[in-house]
Amino acid sequence: MNPETKLEELLIDAEADDEVVQHTPPAVSRPWLLLLGLILVALNLRPALSSMSPLLSEVSNSLGLSAAKAGLLTTLPVLCLGLFAPTAPILARRFGAERVVLGILLTLAAGIVLRSSFGEVGLFAGSLLAGASIGIIGVLLPGIVKRDFARQAGTMTGVYTMALCLGAALAAGATVPLSRYFGDSWSIGLGFWIVPALVAALFWLPQVGQKQGAHQVAYRVKGLLRDRLAWQVTLYMGLQSSLAYIVFGWMPSILIGRGLSATEAGLVLSGSIIVQLASSLVAPWLATRGKDQRLAIVVVMVLTLGGLFGCLYAPLDGLWGWAILLGLGQGGTFSLALTLIVLRSRDSHVAANLSSMAQGIGYTLASMGPFAVGLVHDWSGGWAAVGWIFAVLGVGAIVAGLGAGRAMYVDVRSEKV
Predict the structure, then answer these.
(1) What is the pLDDT along the chain (417 residues), one digit of tens a residue?
(2) Is there a contact between 416 and 219 (Cβ–Cβ < 8 Å)?
(3) Which domain holds residue 153?
(4) What's the CATH code of the domain at 311?
(5) Sheet of 20-23, strands arranged across
(6) Helix (H) or strand (E) holding 201
(7) At what angle do helices 319-343 and 294-313 cross, to 10 degrees?
């Protein structure tokens, strides 16, 4: 089978329920409304993460947070991505995927209100609630796409990814200007992102009444936690994600520490994220043209490290060039991590289980990176020492990627229960 065809067919399955596979999808009466709803929901899967970082220094000063607490604030939502994602299939089986998406959108909106309006306690509680909500919705949407747009799975995956990246870029670039417009209020800047969440919930409401009508067949995959290749894929996912969430959580603060204004720092982050759109589409296509993915992994990781070190140490005159380099690298690292899950799996059921392992354990591991940056900054009083964290995570990702990029399958098989 053509690797691109396999990628299109299985990427959606990678985040689906690891126990249940849906068959005989019901007809969609108004596909345009479902498509609009999916785009609006996907737009909300990153603003709660990327909107905080441009205002992190201001929020910390306002509430008297130490760098360690600020690090925990950037870590908490990422940790929740890994911890709460496995609950999505359970909730979907109990209540239906559409109802869960609607309910969790409202939970996400509640988390945004909490973190922007109720001081330090609300800040941390709201961040936890927002991260948990994003983790759950992120698992459910691909399954809905697989069921209702099976013939356009590849196109819809691209639309979904672009909407996700666009939401991240908009929040990174617009949060500070919004807070300035409303009287230098960081709480309004953060709280604004309840608006797209409620709009998405409104447009998603018609989907709640849709019939599920699917025949279910249960599969079991055993031995994944004992497989070396599975752990290499998981470590690559986790280590590259750790660098990504350090950028989400700390890059604006690093740039502000180097002399940029909060608005300028947010725009640099936003621009870097937008660049990811290109490499996230191109990198998997190029990677499947060779005998394996090891060279592609090394290239995108070198680009990522080059961009990180350039943003941290190089003269500010060339900052935008380094930000673009960083975006090209990180768009490729993330899309290759998803590609590895597919290419290292013999079938969709193994891919679903490998995805659950790689994202659940990987995102939990990834959450340690932003926290470590906060601790190192608090200990050193500056940002220069953070380069060591970049180096350790980057080299670790390359080592894991060289193992995960080999042309072979994880040594497990799926079987009917």
Answers:
(1) 444 444 444 444 444 444 443 444 444 556 777 788 888 998 898 888 778 877 777 888 888 877 777 777 777 887 888 888 778 777 877 887 788 899 999 999 999 999 888 888 888 899 899 989 988 887 777 667 656 765 654 456 557 667 777 888 788 778 888 888 877 778 888 888 899 999 999 998 888 865 444 444 445 667 778 889 999 999 998 999 999 889 887 888 899 988 888 888 888 888 898 888 888 777 777 777 778 889 999 999 999 999 999 999 999 999 999 999 999 999 888 878 877 877 787 765 676 677 777 877 888 888 888 888 888 888 888 899 999 999 999 999 999 999 999 989 888 766 665
(2) yes
(3) 3-416
(4) 1.20.1250.20
(5) 20-23, 215-221, 414-416
(6) helix 194-204
(7) 150
Residue 275 structure tokens: 């660049």
Tell me how far apart the alpha carbons of residues 168 and 378 are, in angstroms, rounded to a whole number.
27
Spatial separation of the C-alpha atoms in residues 85 and 237, rounded to whole Å? 15
For the whole model, what pTM was predicted?
Answer: 0.72
Beta bridge partners, 20, equal 218
Number of structural domains in the chain: 1
> Count of CB atoms within 10 A of residue 86's CB?
16
